[in-house]
Amino acid sequence: MKIAIHNATTGEIIEREATKDEIAQAAKDQALVEAYLEAADKRATEKAALLAKLGITEDEAKLLLS
Amino acid sequence: MANPTTNYGWPMPTATDLVTDLPADFAAFGQPVDTSLKALNPETTLGDIAYRSATANTNTRLGIGSTSQVLTVSGGVPVWATPAGGGGMTLLASGSITASPQTISSISQDYKELVLYCIDFTSGSANSTAVRFNSDSGNNYYTVQVAQNNTTFTSGISTAGTIATVIAPDRGTVAENHFVLRIPNYTASAYKVASAISFITNDGNTTFGTTNTTIGYKSTTAISDIQIIYNTSGSYQLYGVK
User: Which residue of B6, B192, B222, B235 pairs with B217 in a disulfide if CB–CB is 3.0 to 4.6 A?
Assistant: First the structure.
């Protein structure tokens, strides 16, 4: 895994292999993002299921809530 | 006509002067005229200007200024000065995204706001673009997003975590996504707030999405580096705003 660091003061760009800690952090971040995406998907699925159960469209649901 | 003259005191020949006195009279008249004109026109160089000095009938030379300088007043007299900057954006760093994370470090603390553009990127099919400040992986990021996909409003998502997602889920691999992240007051020793707007195309200009994101960053440390995470292509430009 490679990381890049651009020093905004000197303009120097370093590209190097990630350290063990950085790889571990990336794995944690990956898990977090996956959970975030899963939550977003779940929410969308639940929303669609509820609309289907109610037999109304999203626009009609919006109208009800407005 | 008054003799000597009213304004400049130049001595004139008199009615009793002899014709033979004329050369001396001209010398007595001409030299003060020459001196007066030079005192009124002290410029010596192309672009010089003159202004009234504290002494009557004597102007002061102001040499031409430098390129881009403007004429202003200091101490009651005109001077050339470089205009103070204000409101402009200064490019601090730019480049291509070649890795994840892509870190922009050692960011100047001399501005009021940072503006980060990420253009033409994709974060792949399994990720959503995120940012992190100061390499801080603490649980300090509070994110609220409102997203829209084509004509469908996607309900808001609220998260708290060790990373701040900037755009709504981007499942496409087409590098046609963009976001702008603004961080006002980034040098403050107080908690910060940032905002991002993004535009994504998931599959090559047939599906569109936009996202508004607000990020609360619970840290009293000034922001001096920004990590862009999960972008696998595209470019970035970081600006400082005065």
Answer: B192
From chain B, pick out residues whose CB is under 8 angstroms from the CB of A14. none
Q: For residue A51, what are the domain limits? A: 2-65
Identify the domain containing residue B79 by its residue range: 45-83
CA–CA separation, B6 and B15 (whole Å): 18
Query: Which DSSP helix (H) or strand (E) runs through B131?
Result: strand B130-133
Picking from A9, A13, A36, the nearest residue to B128 by CB comes out as A36
From chain B, the residues in CB contact with A39 under 8 A are: 157, 159
* Number of domains present in the structure of chain A: 1
Query: Which of A7, A28, A32 is the closest to B106 by Cβ?
Result: A7
Taking CB atoms and an 8 Å limit, are B99 and A15 in contact across chains? yes
Assigned token pair, B170: 């981007």
A19-66 residue pLDDT tens:
999 999 888 888 887 877 787 778 778 888 888 899 988 888 888 887
The token pair at B145 is: 């997003």
Reported ipTM: 0.71
pTM over 0.80: no
